[in-house]
Amino acid sequence: MTTANIMLYVKDVQANADFWKHYLDFKEVDRFDFGDSISIVLAVNPACNLQLFNIDFIRKNSPEVVDNKPSLLFDISDFDGLYARFKENNETVGEIIEMGGARTFNFPDRNGDYYAVRETAE
């Protein structure tokens, strides 16, 4: 295996891609046009991508997986900077808590799905 691709099913592919690019600096590496829908692939790191699909497209083509939602935890070195960016932009963000010796917080994307980040050393 060379790359893990995590598929997220969202209402607005472009708005969610913009969110991930703005806050976590994910880079767009591919884009697919399905006629009535698009899919955007964002590089999380060299070994992991997020691929965003329109939820209605998935409901039509793969209804058995449409309700699947991953629980994702991202390790972040600029933890305080990311938290500050969320707060400065009046985004919903959870309180910083310590778990197992590391600081964490959670946040929702543009689809309202929650994700977590954990502080890591640089």
TrEMBL record:
Span of domain VOC: 2-120
Listed Pfam families: Glyoxalase
InterPro entries, per database record: Glyas_Bleomycin-R_OHBP_Dase (IPR029068), Glyas_Fos-R_dOase_dom (IPR004360), VOC_core (IPR037523)
UniProt cross-references to Gene3D superfamilies, sorted A to Z: 2,3-Dihydroxybiphenyl 1,2-Dioxygenase, domain 1
Source superkingdom: Bacteria
Protein name: Glyoxalase/Bleomycin resistance protein/Dioxygenase superfamily protein
Naturally occurring in which organism (per UniProt): Trichococcus collinsii
